[in-house]
Structures are given as C-alpha cells and as structure tokens.
Amino acid sequence: MRFSVKTGAPLLAMALALTACGTSGGDDEPSANGGEAGSCEDIAIGYFGALTGAAANLGINIRNGVELAVQQFNEENPDCEVALEEYDSAGDPNQATGLATQAIGDEDVIGVVGPAFSGESDTAGPIFAEGELPTISASATNPALSENGWDTFHRILGNDASQGPAAATYIQDVLQSDSVFVVDDASAYGAGLAEIVEEDLGDAVVGTDTIQTGQTDFSATIAAIRDSGADAVFFGGYYAEAGLLVEQMRRGGVDATFVVADGVKDPGFIEAAGDAAEGTIITCPCLPPEESDEFFQAYEEAFGTAPATYSAEAYDAANVMLQGIAEGNTTRESLLEWINEYDGEGITKEVSFDETGEVQNISVWAYAVKDGEIVADQEIETD
C-alpha cells in the first residue's frame, strides 16, 4: 500500500529540530552530501514490519511513529512533501525476501525504517545491502545483525548484547533470584536473547525449555518450571505467547517472578494474561515515551492513543532520514552517506552510528506491570 500521508492533525514545529553533521548551502544550493535542497519530487521513505499477524501491535507502534514524523515534515515543508510506503511483513521472515525485493524495485523509496523484527531483518538485510537501500531499525535487537558487513544496516536502539546482561543484572541484583528457569520461543530474537541471559546468569539457571510461536498449551513447560523450584522465569519471545504462558503458570500454581523483554512490552500481553500479568518485569532498550511531553501529546492528537513500545525510536529514525532529505539527500547513495555520518539530538537519545550501524548511545529500562498497566520501574545500569 502506498500513500502520501495526511497533514491535517495538529503538528509540532519540531520535525527538523535535530542537529546533524551535514549542512545545507541554502534553499537552492547543493547540500554538503549532494543533491539539491528542496528537490523532493517523487521521494518516499518506507516502513517495513508487521501491520498484521500475532505481533502486529508492535509494528503498528513503529509505523505510527514514522507516520507522525512524515506528517510533521510535510507540514513544515509543503514544497518538499515525502510519501510513506508500507511493507507489511506480518512479522514473518518468509515474507521478507519478496517484500525487500519489492522495496528495492520501488525507485522512489530512498530509505526504510525497519525491518521491525530480527528474523525478517536477517532475511531482508542482504537484499537491502545489494540494492543500496539504507535502513534504520527501531526494534530489531539480535546482535548478529550488525556483524554481516551490510553498510545499509543501522539500528537506533541497543541490541540484546546490552539488554540480555541488563535483564540478568535485574534478576540477580533487584529480584535477588538465584534460581531461574529460561524459556525461549525458537525465534531469532527470542532464542538469541534467552541464550545471552542464560550465559550471564550462569549457575543461577536451574532449567531451560523451548516453545514455538503460535503454541497455546504450555503444560509441559510449566511442569518443568514447577519441578525446577525456580523463583524467577525469564522468557525470550513475543507478547502473544508470553501472555498465555504466564496465565497458565499462575493457574498451575507457579508463582515465580515472570521476567520478559521488549517483545512483550505491549498491552496485548496484559490482554492475553489478564490478572496473571501483574508483577511481570519487562526490560526494553527504549526510553519511556512520556519522557518527551511534546512527542507524547502530538502522538495522542494524531492517533487517539498514547505512544507505545518503539514509537519514539521509530520517530527518531524517520527524522534522521527526513532531515537528510531536507538537506538535499534525495538519492539512496547520498542518504546512506548522511545516515552513516549523522550526529544529532533525537527525542530518545543523541543519535550517531558506529561503523557497523550500531547506535552509540544506549540505555536499558526495566518496566513493571502494576494495576494492569505497564509502567517504568528504573533504568538498568549497563557496561
């Protein structure tokens, strides 16, 4: 689906408030990175990730953050309107190949926010690299993604090499647990994160198990948890399975503290788990969206709901690209150079990328489910 996004919602005059290393020579002069400022005919950026499927909520959060950034940009730059192209992967790596190929063929698209998930990022990454189409993921956290030599790959949040140890630190230092059962969902994201947590917890791990995405009966896993005597359970996976798992744990008499990560930080988890969600600890390399009042208000006005997991990170990622376009970078090549050299202040962090595409400013937060809501608990110290 392709559309030029609407600009009727109240917008902030902050779309270009970021400060970057490129400079423009004026409205009609070439920018430092090539191209002509103000020349934006037939230019689009893309969103790549789930809009349907079991993890659609997380993808919609991200898409909305991108859409808000584009809305604001077009309001501030009526002579340089940018379109938004959507690539709905349903969170399925098997669909990523065709969608990435489609994005490469869409010549108007010069940058993509996404892919949203690690599995689809692994599949689509080499295609984007071959097509020289720059990407910034707001949510894919598998550490190996930046180790493939893809110059087009970037992510605007810390990866699981920081989130995993942070989760282990919280379990040991805050929960003071010395017996942890680790479960993963066999996905690139969930299994990779669970492995890192398991390694960091060491002898505190008293058992492990693997489930499958789409699974609904976890009786065997719950029996193993109960038999292990664990006082904490870490789950690496997404909110649909997490909600059912903890609900069945509580129904089966397991009262161990449930600890999960960013793939579960969504109201869909509470909807699936009901009262059993209460007390769950959720880690995320994401800033609480309410930390930026202006963004929070603008998002609510645009979409009628509060920003959620990775909306703010997606907004920052889109604005890196949009500011590059405003500076005259209207080809994939020049926009990629802009992103690689970018250094500017976003709403979630100061944004700059290292040579592998990793963002250099990282924070990990712990959230807790209290009274049926996901609320910020504390920032977790990371090395």
UniProtKB/TrEMBL annotation:
Pfam families: Peripla_BP_6. Residues 1-22 form the signal peptide. Keywords: Amino-acid transport, Signal, Transport. Residues 43-370 form the Leucine-binding protein domain. It comes from the Bacteria. Belongs to the leucine-binding protein family. This is Branched-chain amino acid ABC transporter substrate-binding protein. It comes from Blastococcus goldschmidtiae. The lineage of its organism: Bacteria, Bacillati, Actinomycetota, Actinomycetes, Geodermatophilales.
